Amino acid sequence: MDSEFNQNESEIEEEVTVSEPQEEECDTVSLVGQFIRDNSMMEKLTKAEDFVDEPFSLEVEEVLPLIEELRKNEDFSDIIIKKGAENIYLFSENYITKNYAKMMILVEEKDLFKLIAETVRDESRIYPRPTSVRLFSRAPFHLLKDEFLQVLEQLKKKEEYSDIKESRASNKALYLYSDRYMKKTLADSLTEWIEVEAEQNP
């Protein structure tokens, strides 16, 4: 009887030992998922490289398999994974929209030409409306006026951004639009309406 009990006890210990890594992996996935949500709630992206630092302190080769486990976990279906030019970014769409995250990634990677062009193109295509340059002084862009104007001047010289055009209201306010999605007459009309006429006709 004792030998049978000892044998069963040994089997149980073996089962516990085998299952521990799986439980630990699940716990890590849950902690990572909550970490991403917490960051997103504060309008902050999570980078894959963040998991190498505390509190996770993962080895570099452990990071991608962990992200894949997170992707497969239905409990974290709100976690979106985006590959940028320099890093892998994660966020919860419960707190950050995909379009806003796209802008945040471009800001993070300091791809200012693409940041401005893609924002203007999206607004021209989706709404459609021209984009006030004041937008780029706000979150998530935070560009200073002189910095923005310098980037804009360089952008206008690049062939790949030749669709980005300027529109000015009668009060001299500057707007941008993409002529891929909006004609100049419409852009100018909307610029004047947004800047001047809307306030005169509430």
State the fourth-level CATH superfamily of the largest domain.
Winged helix-like DNA-binding domain superfamily/Winged helix DNA-binding domain
Q: Strand count, sense and closure of the main sheet? A: 3 strands, antiparallel
Whole-number mean pLDDT: 88
Count of folded domains? 2
The tally of strands reads 6
Characterise this structure.
With 202 residues, this protein is mainly α. The chain folds into two domains: 2-97, Winged helix-like DNA-binding domain superfamily/Winged helix DNA-binding domain (Arc Repressor Mutant, subunit A, Orthogonal Bundle); 111-200. 53% of the residues lie in helices and 12% in strands. It has helices at residues 2-41, 60-72, 98-108, 112-126, 145-155, 184-200, and strands at residues 46-47, 79-83, 88-92, 131-132, 164-168, 174-178. A three-stranded antiparallel beta sheet has the order 1-3-2, sandwiched between helices. Strand 2 (79-83) and strand 3 (88-92) form a beta hairpin. Helix 1 packs across helix 2 (60-72) and helix 4 crosses helix 5. It starts with a helix and ends with a helix. The model is unreliable at 1-21 (pLDDT under 50).
Task: Give the tags.
single chain, Arc Repressor Mutant, subunit A, mainly alpha, three-stranded antiparallel β-sheet, 2 domains, elongated
Give me the secondary-structure topology.
Layout: H1 2-41, E1 46-47, H2 60-72, E2 79-83, E3 88-92, H3 98-108, H4 112-126, E4 131-132, H5 145-155, E5 164-168, E6 174-178, H6 184-200
Antiparallel strand pairs: 1-3, 2-3, 4-6, 5-6
Helix pairs in contact: 1-2, 4-5
